[in-house]
Amino acid sequence: DQQVKQNSPSLSVQEGRISILNCDYTNSMFDYFLWYKKYPAEGPTFLISISSIKDKNEDGRFTVFLNKSAKHLSLHIVPSQPGDSAVYFCAATNSGGSNYKLTFGKGTLLTVNP
Amino acid sequence: DTEVTQTPKHLVMGMTNKKSLKCEQHMGHRAMYWYKQKAKKPPELMFVYSYEKLSINESVPSRFSPECPNSSLLNLHLHALQPEDSALYLCASSQGGGFFNYGYTFGSGTRLTVV
After folding, report:
1. Is B109–A107 a contact, with Cβ atoms under 8 angstroms apart?
2. Which residues of chain A have pLDDT under 50?
3. Which of A38, A47, A100, A103 to mutate to test the interface with B (most CBs of B within 10 A)?
4. What is the pLDDT of residue B40?
């Protein structure tokens, strides 16, 4: 049973346009959400996070939106750059737990075309 | 130092071999993790160490044996693995104590091939 779902395996966007990556979760205990970026042959790199007490968090070109009632979050990248091409993983956790476990989605491969 | 260092980067081992994966961080993080990632799949948690004590074992077979000698080091001892254990093994660390503002810091991983 996948508790974190990224239903789009891939996304292709033109340079300069907006990239929108989506993520859905089923576990209502999740209250902290993170996005990671992964290049081939490297470990995932933390990108941005959001707590369930917020509905938006912004960091430069990256904005994460959280819709708790829909159990849905999205990552917006504006403007998209070719260097953003990577696999993006959505992850979720229950920050009140003592085990710090992250549950990951399957990832979305973003390709930004020049 | 804001990195998690994993060695070796690549490892090929036979099913009767014993080998170890190593992970090191000097960020003062008190939680350390082993994740396993197969191709086109998300990272899957194997073990969590919190303050040098094993706090989670996600029902991992005993042929994988974790060890945390001190707060900066995390090892994964491998013995009698199967070909299906071939994967990217990722180590990560975090501040622990519920500090998730900056997420985990992952290492680059060890690409393990069992022949």
Report:
1. no
2. none
3. A100
4. 81
Query: Is the pLDDT assigned to residue B101 strictly greater than 60?
Result: no
Specify the pairing of strand A10-14 against strand A108-113: parallel
Are the C-beta atoms of residues B34 and B47 closer than 8 Å to each other? yes
Confidence of residue B50 (pLDDT cuts 50, 70, 90): confident
Structure-token pair, residue A110: 């973003």
Helix (H, G, I), strand (E, B) or coil at A31: coil
Q: Are A13 and A111 in contact (CB under 8 A)?
A: yes
Q: What is the Cβ-side half-sphere exposure of residue B99, based on CA atoms within 13 angstroms?
A: 12
CA distance B20 to chain A (A): 19
Give B27→chain A minimum CA distance, Å: 15
Best B6, B89, B104 residue to mutate vs chain A (most A CBs within 10 Å): B104
Locate B6 and state its tokens. Answer: 């994993």
Q: How far apart are CA A57 and CA A62, in angstroms?
A: 8
Confidence at residue A95, expressed as pLDDT on a 0 to 100 scale: 76
Q: Quick one: pLDDT at residue A97?
A: 66
Partners of residue B111 in chain A, C-beta under 8 Å: 41
Are B42 and A46 within 8 A, CB to CB? no
